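During the reporting period the student researcher (J.K.) took over the structure-prediction task from the postdoctoral fellow and processed the backlog of single-chain submissions. One of the processed entries is reproduced below for the supervisory committee.
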Amino acid sequence: MAGFLLGNTLSENGGVTRGICSVDQDHHLTRVNETKNIVKTEEGYLMFYTAWQDAFKARICMAKSEDGIHNWIRHSSNPIVSGGQFGAWDVEAVYRPVVLKKDNKWICYYTGCARGNKRIGALIHQGMELGL
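J.K. obtained the following structure tokens:
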């Protein structure tokens, strides 16, 4: 398993997705528990991540850190993305966010799920202010 310094993996061109890995006693990878989308900003770092309510219900949340390693502060409005209303294609779960900054807006691509059917969705937030 390889490890990287977070500061060496980020650029102005976009975010990076990382997972929390588990290994067995022989140091073989057994599981990747969660992926995160970390984006460098002028003020520090933003992390967009999946928060599981239970085995089937997931939401997208956000946190910020000045150095990208310590003192992550969760957004006061978490979850920032929840599933749609009854009958929607993403009513059960929204997860695996990939967030990009482009032309004074944020674009969040995510996986949505309902009744076992998975699809890709996109949300656009105009402006760079995210309320943190």
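The committee noted the following: The radius of gyration is 16 Å.
J.K. will present the remaining backlog at the next meeting.
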